[in-house]
Design brief:
The chain is α+β, with helices and mostly antiparallel strands and about 475 residues long. It is about 40% helix and about 15% strand. Helix 10 (about 295-315) crosses helix 12, helix 10 crosses helix 13 (about 365-390) and helix 10 (about 295-315) crosses helix 14. The two termini are about 25 Å apart.
């Protein structure tokens, strides 16, 4: 039953053909099976209780929560040893909104430590394995959520997205990942990484389910000054597959195979799938145009993200001293306590990012690095805003192919390939609504496409994705592990 859509499960609950208790038992059983195979969870809530089934579509249905959302009286670690025993005294607003509508949390999912990674391998409980192929990564940081939804543990799970942390795991796991316009979902209770880039969001197996869940979570929140009143926006009821006369654009420099030196067969197939989907867009009545962006600007996206996110992370994680939160050391003075806590509590990845953040924020370095990154961010956002004045959305392939091997160490720097892998950051730079949907397979592994639109145009972006999904055969797919 949990492999069905939210609407189908809700209808089964209303008809009495299943119960909330039965769904919870099934979801917890699947959670343990998936944990044994893929290591997707920090905590499984074996004592989760059924709720009343109401007219709310999410009522009585299990779901998962990424372990950087505060959940009262439930372990919330951020997948870090620095908070390995932390139990919050309050619940994040978006989670509370789901609870108030009768949704049932059955587990907390693994992430890259404090959401600062793109592989799903740096959480303190170990790497999350891809349910299509255990030698592959899920991407990150919302790796556990993507793995669980793709495995059929429940129809949706919460994620967070600072650069691509919902949308790339969705692509690598063959599901849907949606981050709404910045501020549509409250971030109160979501551990901050880079506050100007962080978005709450959801992973599902269909566009409609993504709309339903965000409808249930959104709303202005007095605890989050960046949230705004979206009560007039009804995402699920606004979905339409009538997209004639919509206009999309793609970036030539990212999508032309001739722009890459010695492209792999996987990249060739991935881009062919993408161009086939562009033709499908045209068949649906949409206009699709090619636009050009200076390659130097595209190559700078990843650096801009690194500088700004690390700078903000340095500030946001400054409260993790081992005194207020987390395990406290036996050192004899405050300085030694802090040093020991951060040395033992943080992984090498986090330490590197905090060093970068501290360096770019030093007064002698701010102009060269931090302020230049801010200027480039604004330049990139302005370029996109100009495009969005003419187009309904930007459509691009996600990454350079299917999920990489977990043990694939490739230190070769290819700026053009870096731009293809980092363009999703643009959605965070501008706070734009952005959704990834499955776009077929390469060598038996799923790949995705992404659609990004102008701020507050979420309904438009979702309808474009919904219309494409309706003409494809990947909606609702469950991972089938390659042997």
């Amino acid at each position: 039953m949990l492999e069905k859509s939210i609407t189908e499960i809700h209808e089964a609950l209303k008809s009495g053909s299943t119960t909330s208790k039965e769904l919870i038992i099934e979801s917890i059983k699947k959670s343990h099976e998936v944990q044994d195979k893929y290591n997707a969870f920090v905590t499984i809530c074996d004592e989760a209780k059924e709720t009343e089934v109401t007219e709310e579509l999410v009522s009585g249905i299990p779901f998962g929560v990424k372990d950087n959302y505060s959940t009262k009286d439930v372990l919330t670690t951020g997948s870090s040893n620095a908070l390995k025993n932390y139990v919050p005294i309050y619940t994040a607003t978006v989670v509370e909104n789901l609870f108030n509508k009768g949704a049932v949390m059955v587990n907390k999912t693994v992430l890259d430590e404090f959401a600062m990674g793109g592989t799903g391998t740096t959480g303190h409980t170990g790497a999350v394995l891809n349910p299509w192929d255990r030698t592959r990564m899920c991407a990150g940081s919302s790796a556990g959520s993507a793995c669980a939804v793709a495995s059929g543990v429940y129809p949706y799970a919460l994620g967070s997205d600072t650069g691509d942390s919902i949308r790339k795991p969705a692509a690598y796991c063959g599901i849907v990942g949606y981050k709404p316009t910045y501020g549509m979902l409250s971030r109160y209770g979501l551990f901050p990484f880079a506050s100007s880039l962080d978005h709450a969001g959801v992973l599902t197996r269909s566009v409609e389910d993504a709309a339903i869940v965000v409808d249930a979570m959104k709303g202005i929140d007095s605890n989050d000054m960046t949230s705004w009143d979206s009560s007039e926006i009804k995402l699920s009821s606004s979905l339409t597959d009538s997209v004639q006369n919509k206009k999309l654009f793609y970036i030539k420099e990212l999508c032309d195979i001739n722009n890459y030196t010695n492209p792999s067969e996987e990249l060739k197939t991935h881009l062919k799938n993408f161009h086939d989907t562009l033709n499908l867009c045209r068949d649906l009545g949409m206009e699709v145009c090619e636009e050009s962006v200076d390659q130097k600007i595209l190559n700078a996206i990843d650096s801009v993200y690194t500088v700004i996110s690390c700078a903000e992370a340095t500030s946001n994680l400054s409260n993790l001293t081992g005194i207020i939160f987390g395990p406290r050391s036996d050192a004899q003075n405050v300085q030694d306590m802090m040093r020991e806590h951060r040395t033992k509590g943080f992984s090498p990845l986090i330490k590197r990012r905090l060093v970068i953040g501290s360096y770019v924020l030093q007064s002698e370095n701010q102009d060269r690095y931090f302020r230049n990154a801010q200027k480039l961010r604004r330049l990139i956002v302005n370029i996109m805003k100009d495009f969005f004045a003419k187009y309904d959305g930007l459509i691009l392939p996600v990454g350079d192919g299917p999920a990489p091997l977990i043990n694939d160490a490739n230190d070769k720097l290819d700026l053009k390939m870096s731009a293809l892998n980092s363009h999703l950051d643009i959605g965070n730079f501008g706070g734009f609504p952005s959704i990834t949907i499955p776009n077929g397979f390469v060598n038996g592994l799923p790949v995705g496409i992404n659609i990004t639109g102008n701020c507050y145009k979420d309904a438009n972006v979702l309808s474009i994705a919904y219309s494409l999904e309706s003409k494809m055969s990947f909606k609702g797919q469950i991972a089938k592990e390659r042997m």
